[in-house]
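Hi,

I'm pasting everything inline rather than attaching a file, because the server keeps stripping attachments. The sequence lines come first, and each chain or strand is labelled.
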Amino acid sequence: DIQMTQSPSSLSASVGDRITITCQASQDISNYLNWYQQKPGKAPELLIYDASNLEAGVPSRFSGSGSGTDFTFTISSLQPEDIATYYCQQYDNLLLTFGGGTKVEIK
Amino acid sequence: QVQLQESGPGLVKPSETLSLTCTVSGGSISSYYWSWIRQPPGKGLEWIGYMYYSGSTNYNPSLKSRVTISVDTSKNQFSLKVRSVTAADTAVYYCARGSRSTSRAWGQGTLVTVSS
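And the predicted assembly:
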């Protein structure tokens, strides 16, 4: 099974800060990676698909990059409504696995 | 806009079968892939499996021996059964619509507790 290692597990930043979350796959997954946002008590929402494609309707401050085993998710200017847990998810071999999540808080 | 709603018992006894239904409104179930994902309290997401509307399925190997996903196109619903449950199956269960790789529409989730 492909394991996804996501870091950090949590972070605290100020409004307007640029934040970065990384996700590392245990083997090459090409660009078969999604990023989801989950706000407290809510279902996850898709933000980025195929590693770097912004889902329709998602603000442009969210972005993703990477391929192979190393991936990055960035919020260019953190907003109060971005408080959530973010998950990467791979789909390389038709078996889907999620990273452990990154909880983002405001300082 | 499609909406998904999970329903089923909130409490299941150990060793019994957990059964949930996802009702789809605002769109037909006769296309797309239909998935189940779960989240134990305070923990991360775990993919359970998906079904294509035609009936083909794919399951998480760690759950495959205990899980069945089925679809009822006449009712625009799909279902999840998890057999021989234990406390480790306590979770919020989400149904979702999308492709094999990506879920774009999710239900609100339903908490299922396994306890005697």
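The interface with chain A takes residues 37, 44-47, 58, 60-61, 94, 96, 100-104, 106-109 of chain B (CB under 8 Å).

If the labels don't parse on your end, tell me and I'll reformat.
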